[in-house]
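Practice problem: predict the structure.
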Amino acid sequence: FPKGISGFFAGFQIAVFAFVGIELVGTTAAETADPKRNLPKAINSIPVRIIIFYVLALVAIMMVTPWRLVEAGKSPFVELFVLAGIPAAASLINFVVLTSATSSANSGIFSTSRMLYGLAEERHAPKMFARLSRAAVPSLGLLFSCFCLLLGAAMIYLIPDLVTAFTLITTLSAVLFMFVWSLILFAYLAYRRKRPQLHEASTYKMPGGVFMCWACLAFFVFVLVLLSLQPDTREALIASPVWFVLLGIGYLWKERRLRRAEALPAE
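Answer:
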């Protein structure tokens, strides 16, 4: 808050992006040996990890680094160790950041390939993504995920300024994932309404239930308003509807093909 509350609100964009992929804890339920035991354990560990890796890390940075010396183009963790007189530790932090980014990319590739496989099985995506390799892996989905990842890396060459490219990608990701999270919340509300007996029998219920769903949805609207206030995040917010238009065109094309297939006489 050195220059007012606007800086605090401006940080919401990158904070939301930091939680991209948190829904993967549910995606892995089908491939977990004991989901009733492992999923609650994984979910309950998330607040602890946030406190350790986000809150305490920021406390350490702010205790050592004056806010006037924080530069947007440099890692605050690296600068922290440089100021402390441990330059070798800065290289170690860079290594940790790179391995963390690799792990994040790996989880994204995993989830995308599985999602494409599920959509293809339900005829919402091309049939080729439903094919499995000999090891029962959706290999075409993996290759497509890697191709999309490379397209994202190409943004560095299209936008020379690294901070601008990073802000654009992170903002666009935050907007699209807030849409995904909203769908999950609406699905949960529909589940409670249509399957009350199953929800009542659940041994691991979401605290707050319906109220927290609407509170989260209201928070997403609040974040979208904040993104419209900053010039750099506003550009990504304006560009985000293009993705939904492409999805709509793809859905209409798929529905037309299905209707044509159903209209053909049986051989």
